[in-house]
Specification:
The relative contact order is 0.09. Helix content is about 25%, strand content about 25%. The chain contains eleven helices and 24 strands. The longest helix is centred in the N-terminal third of the chain and has 17 residues, at about 30-45. A five-stranded parallel sheet has the order 4-3-5-6-7, with helices on one face. A five-stranded mixed sheet has the order 12-13-14-15-16. Strand 12 (about 260), helix 9 and strand 13 form a beta-alpha-beta unit. Helix 1 (about 5-15) runs parallel beside helix 7 (about 220-230), helix 2 packs across helix 3 and helix 6 crosses helix 7. Among the domains are: about 5-190, Rossmann fold, CATH 3.40.50.980; about 345-434, Luciferase, domain 3 (Roll). The radius of gyration is 22 Å and the shape is globular.
Amino acid sequence: MLVQHFLEHSAQRFPDKIALICGDAQLTYGEINRRANCVARFLKEKGVKRQERVGIFLDNSIESVISLFGILKADGIFLILSPTLKATKLAYILNNCQVRALITHTNKLNVVSGIFGSIPTLRFVIFTGDKDKIPVANSINSIFWGEINCLSSPHASRLTPSENIDLDLATIIYTSGSTGDPKGVMFTHLNMVSAATSIITYLENREDDIILNVLPLSFGYGLYQILMAFKFGGTVILERSFTYPYQVIEKMVQERVTGFPGIPTIYAILLGLKDLDKFDFSSLRYMTNAAAALPPAHIERLRKIFPHVKFYSMYGLTECKRVSYLPPQEIDRRPTSIGRGMPNEEVWIVDEKGNPVGAGIVGELVVRGANVMRGYWGLPEETARVLRPGKYPGEMVLYTGDLFKTDEEGFLYFVGRKDDMIKSKGERISPKEI
């Protein structure tokens, strides 16, 4: 299976079902599939070849979703870039992975207009937004989104079958690069299908789920809300942010949302709101937390406000998308745990010599699974440092660089980053403990 099959299969099963709500716009699976076909055909006509990279530099939008599937249907590799990137870092990423094309919005002109001449592989830019603002005199071929052949037509011709197989790359996700240049984390179709399937399995997603996503699609956690929903045939309400929380909550109630993914800063804002008890959250079935641990006090308050909702504490890292989850029935017993490895994945903890350790002993977390990245783009030495030979011949496993310990029942507890640890009298001490 390839990632674009998520959309194609749902479009076959539910052509008239609303797949995506963004602002006042609502698109069915059939409409999104047709528009993605148009983008794919246009990219191919413009010379984008198999496994070439196409960047998406947009805020959360309908165009960003259509674009990523269109790129995949053209056998390309998509990059969803943070909409807050500055010109210097954007130029670095586009040069690093040698992008062929870029899809952006005219509201990003102040960032992108100055870098065109510094990206030798970039052949054309597709602009959404205001056609009148697209620069005419430019070394790069500029194209208006609305002029892509067949986007406004009710019928789009079928595409030729994909040449890609599931071992081909589907996306490159760049790390934040806070301590240096961003690293491009390479994911194959197999990696992404495996991760999405495992997460859907433990969240028990179903066709009638409606997910409200306020997370940026450039963030893997946000991107997978789209991928997962399109795989199981659900609906996603895509918001740009959680800047106006009451508007988001009203949308949640109005659309009878069943799933809400969040991070600690979002939940802190949510818990700071007044009169939450006046809203009808009866349709909400589950909430998830990732990116960082949620304080137990916040979990306790959320459980009181949403007593009927299943709450999932999760842990992951860019290099493998997701590692573990804590079953909701365990949240009261072990609120500081991030659970066990997710389905179709194996995790264990090792000492500095790579030997497995027992309960209560701090060591580095190792992940084995089809969700583990292919490696870092153009960085073989960095890749070899974290992808090392596993238990069985020919396999590579991920050394996360994160220190954990387990309890007697095998539940995981995060201790700290390996590089951040302080040694005192032979013992490792986490800055968090200090």
